[in-house]
């Protein structure tokens, strides 16, 4: 465990960061350190270097009862041990902690709210080798959660296969993490609904894609980049994810019934209950080089892939 004095200092510093991001923060009883609430988002916080304590925190589900319903809490871990591995926590290591502390201080000086998105399962501290390539532009001073730019402007123009000039746009995507639990039992049939996963929905055209949440960067974007606003709302995206998850987990069970010389089959539809499904969803921007020539070609600035379905021209630019 952290020494008591170090842990108290860590709690105070984490509290200041979360408060700068608009959370209401309170100290709670051990083994936790803090609880934080912001617009229906609930977070349990632990400051520790003890592997056993962290493992218990990682595998424990924390819920807050509000309005008669149990709402799952995100889990935030601050640790000085950079070897710690978790599956279900947001992890702040030393480098991330230093960066966020500085940003929180600046936000208070400028009387602004710190932009902070908490994504469960993501290791927030930047790993060596994940630094994005420079794209030849000064920083904009705007910080949004985004995938880093790995492809230069020149390479994007070459990859596009068309003569034209590339401009950098950050396209909105709803990135979600879902967890489902519970089961249904009918006679001797037990149908479990345990499932967990990540995904993303393009907030312009609704296309789904995969994402590694560990790659999300919360730093500043280049000054010459355009940030595109979403056309699909957060509520609409959440409903799509929920409905598709229920459909995916629904099972049709055929049950054999025997009475005397008669045999018949009864079909039951087993669906997970809404209360057993939790979805965390946040807006993340994906970088795209849009090359305008005789035609418009868009290149994923993170992977270098040419997009098969470019974004439409009616995008709202913020």
Features:
six-stranded mixed sheet, alpha+beta, 318 residues, single chain, 5 helices, 19 strands, disordered C terminus
Please tell me about this protein's structure.
The chain has 318 residues and is of the alpha+beta class. It contains 5 helices and 19 strands. The strands form 6 sheets. Strands 9, 12, 13, 15, 18 and 19 form a 6-stranded mixed sheet that branches. The two termini are 46 Å apart. The model is unreliable at 122-137 and 312-318 (pLDDT under 50).
Walk me through the topology.
Elements: H1 4-20, E1 24-27, E2 34-38, E3 41-47, H2 51-59, E4 63-66, E5 69-72, E6 74-78, E7 90-92, H3 94-109, E8 139-143, H4 153-160, E9 165-180, E10 183-186, E11 189-192, E12 195-202, E13 208-209, E14 220-222, E15 226-227, H5 234-249, E16 251-259, E17 262-270, E18 277-292, E19 296-300
Parallel strand pairs: 3-6, 6-7, 9-15
Antiparallel strand pairs: 1-2, 2-3, 4-5, 8-14, 9-12, 9-18, 10-11, 12-13, 16-17, 18-19
Helix pairs in contact: 1-3
How many helix segments?
A: 5
- Describe the global form: flat
pLDDT under 50 segments (min length 5)? 122-137, 312-318
Strand content: 35-45%
> What series of H and E elements makes up the topology?
HEEEHEEEEHEHEEEEEEEHEEEE
- Round the Cα radius of gyration to an integer and report it: 23 Å
* Average pLDDT rating: 83
Helical amount among residues, as a percent range? 10-25%
Q: Quaternary status of these chains?
A: single chain
Q: What is the strand tally? A: 19
Largest sheet: 6 strands, mixed
Separation, N- and C-terminal Cα atoms? 46 Å
- SS-based class: alpha+beta
